[in-house]
Amino acid sequence: MPRKPRNNIKTPFIHVMTQGINKSYIFNEDRDIKYYISTMYNIKEKYSIKIIAYCIMNNHAHILIETNDVDNLSKYMQCLNTKYAVYYNKKYKRIGYVFRDRYRSEEILSENHLNNCIQYIYNNPIKAKICKKAEEYPYSNYKSSKLEIKGSIEKYKFMDIEEEDGQIIREYMSKKNLKIDNLLKNKIDLRKMVSYLKNEEKISYRNMEKELGISRETLRKSIK
Fold it and tell me: Which of 2, 66, 158, 193 is 20 to 30 A distant from 41 in Cα terms?
């Protein structure tokens, strides 16, 4: 089956996560968070980025972004985090890295996945026991995001990526004459398959789990 190239993102919705170096606080005061949020919005038009949901915590940030260009996403996050790092180092009279990594990103592959991601983002302060309800936290757009979310979902029809990935997995197993029961007993075959599907086909552990019935944790450990 012809495989669509994965060089470009296959969904306009990307969950971006960025964290402080050594998991340390990088938003020490309210004005720090406000500066980061204002920068998020001030530069989004330049890179054709739409912010769907966000939540900024003391040592990390979650942003759900809508974009049709992975290069624009990369440039946007580089600009955002660079501007904040310059601000932060100048304010606190320090030098060196502010963020742990450049950033991490996760493609949103279905409407259900999108809704779960949004809920996860807004529940961060609840999980951290900062507040009891998402609307109580001041540094997310929980109160103003509902129309943005609804409009984005309505205008976009998710591709059936799960079925496409499932077919690729089935074809690989057929070609290699593999059975699911045998995979759990043969760690070498499992490692080779998971490594290929993850690194070459860019298939998520979530979709592998759905097709194979093998837990994500087992799949992750197989290639460590």
Answer: 158
